[in-house]
Design goal:
The structure holds two protein chains of two kinds. Chain A is mainly α. Helices cover 54% and strands 0% of the residues of chain A. Chain B is globular, with a radius of gyration of 19 Å. Chain B is mainly α. Classes of the chains: A mainly alpha, B mainly alpha. Chains A and B meet through helix 2 of A and helix 10 and helix 11 of B.
Chain lengths: 80, 277
């Protein structure tokens, strides 16, 4: 299982798998739309990260995600 | 000409259409001549409001192409073929109402409006997907997105003090949401018949979805930038008001979509990379 302390590396690897390009320079402060990740890829990245930990972020929380850190934090909180 | 027996799916789709049509006839019909308060046009409204209305009208003006491709794809299915004919009638009122508003508000002359149609007619819309099922799923997404945008622009018209355009957008939005509900009912039947195949097609449609005016309507990109300022569909809105509601209505979980979506996104990426080579 991935490191639950900091999920940035997991985000990068999932995003690279989904969008087939490098996200090496991404930080937690990066705004997801600025990375050129569209809405469907974003849903896929969220879903893949949820699957990794067998968790589910409520749909209503998804729209609050603006930065990479927002997404990582939501997963981290549920992983404990 | 002898036809085979009516299949179960044909019967279901016919019934869905008849329920839709009955509601439309009894409760949703509106008249361009009797129900729109033309005396409530605000001639001093902004040019932005007019540009947005013209853009909506432009997209709606590809109606001949939408109807031609749609009705031919579903020709073998009685209920769906009649749906296409009725859909064409309802959609035809949208561009007529918006065109009338543009000229009655003084924002465009009749000559400008007809010239604009001639420009529109120079290009032809082509169906973005090949099969009836994919086009039905495209209908779900496109009508839902269009409904969301019209509601936002209905509010824009209200802010501009134009009760006439507000009413037009209200009628159109009601039509669009009724259309997406019809498509959703059809998709439920398709899911029951072939869930895996329908999910694959839904993922493909989400992955390749574009609004129909792209590459067709003159100055589309500039128009869309302008419209976004007044209430377009950004990423959050698409997720919140289109993607998630569609999945919820169809009783599909986000996780059920993942495998099909993964394949669809990879195919989209393949296509983009091939196009770039």
């Amino acid at each position: 299982m991935s490191d639950t302390k900091d999920l940035l590396p997991l985000f990068k690897s999932v995003a690279e798998r989904v969008d087939r390009r490098s996200f090496e320079t991404v930080t937690r402060e990066s705004v997801i739309t600025d990375l050129g990740i569209d809405s469907l890829s974003m849903m896929q990245i969220v879903g893949e990260m949820e699957t990794e930990f067998s968790i589910q972020i409520p749909d209503e929380d998804l729209v609050e995600i603006v930065t990479v850190g927002d997404l990582c934090s939501k997963v981290e909180r549920r992983v404990g | 000409m002898t036809q085979g027996p009516v299949t179960r799916i044909e019967e279901q789709l016919y019934r869905i259409y008849m329920e839709f049509f009955e509601t439309a006839e009894r409760e949703r019909r509106w008249s361009l001549f009797n129900d729109i308060p033309w005396d409530k046009v605000n001639p001093s409204c902004s040019d932005d409001l007019a540009l947005c209305a013209e853009t909506f009208a432009s997209v709606e003006m590809y109606l001949p192409d939408y109807v031609a491709s749609g009705i031919n794809v579903v020709r073998p299915w009685f209920g769906r073929a009649w749906w296409q004919a009725n859909w064409g009638y309802e959609e035809s009122k949208h561009s007529l109402a918006l065109g009338e508003w543009l000229t009655r508000s003084g924002k465009r002359t009749k000559d400008q409006w007809f010239d604009h149609y001639n420009v529109i007619a120079e290009k032809q819309w082509e169906a973005p997907f090949k099969t009836a099922r994919q086009m039905t799923l495209y209908g779900v997404v496109q009508e839902q997105a269009t409904f969301v945008i019209y509601v936002k622009h209905r509010d824009f018209a209200k802010r501009e003090g134009d009760e006439c355009l507000y009413t037009i957008y209200d009628f159109i939005a009601r039509d669009e949401v009724a259309h997406t509900r019809f498509y959703q009912q059809v998709v439920k039947v398709l899911l029951a018949e072939d869930r895996e195949g329908t999910l694959a097609d839904l993922a493909k449609v989400f992955a390749e979805f574009r609004m129909p005016g792209v590459d067709l309507v003159p100055d589309y990109d500039e128009r869309i930038l302008q419209m976004r300022g007044q209430g377009g569909v950004d990423r959050d809105l698409f997720i919140r008001k289109v993607y998630l509601p569609v999945l919820k209505y169809l009783d599909i979980s986000r996780h059920e979509m993942l495998a099909a979506q993964r394949r669809a996104l990879q195919e989209r990426q393949d296509a983009r990379e091939n196009a770039a080579e």
